[in-house]
Each structure stands twice: as C-alpha cells, then as structure tokens.
C-alpha cells in the first residue's frame, strides 16, 4: 500500500523502514503526512510480519517543522466559518489529526526507532518523542519552535519531552525559549541514545538493532512495551498489577492452546500463579527472603 509523503520498505525479515518523503516542502509536516503516518503505523501494528519499525527521513533534514502553506490554507478556510462553535470544532479536528498520528506511534505494540539527521523542529519533536528509541547524526539539531510562531506545541512534545529526558527544567527551557539543541547536548540530556558520524552508519546501526529486536520473542517484546507505557502514567504497584494481569492472560491462553501437552500446561499455570503470588507478597515479607 502506498502512502503520500511516506515511503515504506521491508529492510530485513520482520523489520520495516518508514521514510518521511516531503523533500519538495523541505520535509515539513502536512495534513496528508499526518494521515499517512497514522494509517501506516496502524497497519504495521496489525501486521504479523512486522516486529520492529525504523523511522527516518529523506533529504537534507529530518523535519523542518510545520508546513506554513498548509497552515495558511487552514487559517483561510477557518476564517470563512462564521459560527464560532463550528470554528472551534474545525480547530479540534485538525489538532486531533496531528495528535493521533504520534499517539499511534507511541501505542504501537512494535518497538519504533527514530533516526534523526539535520533539523528536527516543531512536530518533528512530537514524532521522535513518541518513539521508543532515538539515534542521531552529528549534524542533527532539535528545536521546539512553536512559541516563536505564537503557538503552544500541540503534537505531544510538551507531554512527552519531560518524560523522555527526565529533566523538566531542561524540557521547559527548550519549550519556553525555542532555542536549538545540538546533538551533543541532546545526548547529554538523554534525548537520543547515541550519535553517529554519518547517516549511513546511523541507519545501519538502527536496522541492526531493529533486527535484533525482531528476532526475540514478539510476545515478550510487545508485552514489555505495553507494560512500560502503562507504568509511565501509573504507580509502581499499579504497574506490577498490570503486568501480572497480562501474564495471567498469556498463561491462560497457553493452557487452552496446549491441551496436547499436559506437562507444559501445568508448568505455565504454576509459573504464572507463582509470579502472581510473589508480586502480591513482595510489598510485605516474601517467604523467599527467609531462605
């Protein structure tokens, strides 16, 4: 299936690469690209032949920000709507289109790796902070530019950036001042995992990493991502209860599917029950601590 401004390739078994392809507009984000990202990520999330995704970009920069022509046309259309409430609905619909594209990346059960070169501005920051891992080249730089345009970032950057870097002061400085952050500073504050001298070296490393992930148990990997994402917005105990519930569900499914092997079924059953019991008592005193 083809997507506007987005190229999709299967680089290696179970590994898919998505290239942002809007070089004509300097790799700015357009409505059509938001739609393409949402549709593509949703499809790959359901595709059993996909276990890991790498997002990169063609051209000189990863993302140079909002497509101002696209935004200008939206504002023109908005001005033609006389009813204030309908105008508000139109704004809400546009923002939802942007947000759901990056929420799809964040909630996709398959790990998503972003590789960044050149500029990563505005909604580009919303995209990469929704990804699970980030690598960049030495020429990369990052900017939350929205305040310079008289707007607050609405693509998810304000919500995800502080959690990604683990430093609200740094995140607020980026968002309040719209200053550029180079690759070295991004690495120092945890925005990216690693810096590479060239784009090709970075791409090869990311594809290798995605292939490594793809060859591990997809159930284990996807359960891990689900638990990490859930735990970010909940207490530790809620996260512990959540993972136990998932493991119980997996164990129950395995029992029903493995009726031909009683030994394996009982092993799964008692293993899961054991994990559940251990987590429940861990907050007080576990009998294992007495050994």
List the main descriptive attributes of the protein structure presented here.
single chain, 291 residues, alpha/beta, 6-stranded mixed sheet, disordered C terminus
Structure notes:
The structure is a single chain. By secondary structure, the chain is an alpha/beta fold. 54% of the residues lie in helices and 14% in strands. It has eleven helices and nine strands. Strands 1-2-3-4-6-9 form a six-stranded mixed β-sheet, sandwiched between helices. The chain has a three-stranded mixed β-sheet with strand order 5-7-8. Strand 2, helix 1 and strand 3 form a beta-alpha-beta unit. The C terminus is likely disordered.
Query: What structural class do you assign from the helix and strand content?
Result: alpha/beta
Mean pLDDT comes to 86
SSE arrangement, N to C: EEHEHHEEHEEHHEHEHHHH
Principal-axis shape: globular
Radius of gyration: 22 Å
Number of helices: 11
List low-confidence stretches.
Answer: 281-291
């Amino acid at each position: 299936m083809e997507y506007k401004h987005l190229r999709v390739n299967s680089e290696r078994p179970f590994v898919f690469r998505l290239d942002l392809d809007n070089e004509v507009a300097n790799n700015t984000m357009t409505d059509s690209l938001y739609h393409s990202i949402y549709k593509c990520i949703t499809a790959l999330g359901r595709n059993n032949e996909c276990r890991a995704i790498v997002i990169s970009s063609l051209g000189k920069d990863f993302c140079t920000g909002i497509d101002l022509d696209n935004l200008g046309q939206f504002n023109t259309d908005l001005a033609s709507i006389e009813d204030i409430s309908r105008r508000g609905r139109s704004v809400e619909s546009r923002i939802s289109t942007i947000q759901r594209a990056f929420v799809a990346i964040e909630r996709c059960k398959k790990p998503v790796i972003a590789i960044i070169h050149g500029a990563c501005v505005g909604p580009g920051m919303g995209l990469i902070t929704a990804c699970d891992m980030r690598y960049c080249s030495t020429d990369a730089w990052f900017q939350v530019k929205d305040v310079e345009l008289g707007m607050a970032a609405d693509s998810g950057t304000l919500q995800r950036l502080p959690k990604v870097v683990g430093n609200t002061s740094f995140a607020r400085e980026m968002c309040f001042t719209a200053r550029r952050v180079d690759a070295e500073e991004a690495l120092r504050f945890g925005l990216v995992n690693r810096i590479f001298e060239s784009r090709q070296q970075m791409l090869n490393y990311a594809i290798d990493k995605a292939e490594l992930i793809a060859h591990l148990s997809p159930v284990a990997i996807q359960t891990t991502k689900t638990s990490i994402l859930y735990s970010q917005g909940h207490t530790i105990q809620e996260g512990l209860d959540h993972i136990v519930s998932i493991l119980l569900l997996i164990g129950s499914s395995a029992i029903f599917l493995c009726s031909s092997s009683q030994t394996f079924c009982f092993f799964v059953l008692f293993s899961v029950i054991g994990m559940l019991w251990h987590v429940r008592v861990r907050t007080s005193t576990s009998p294992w601590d007495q050994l």
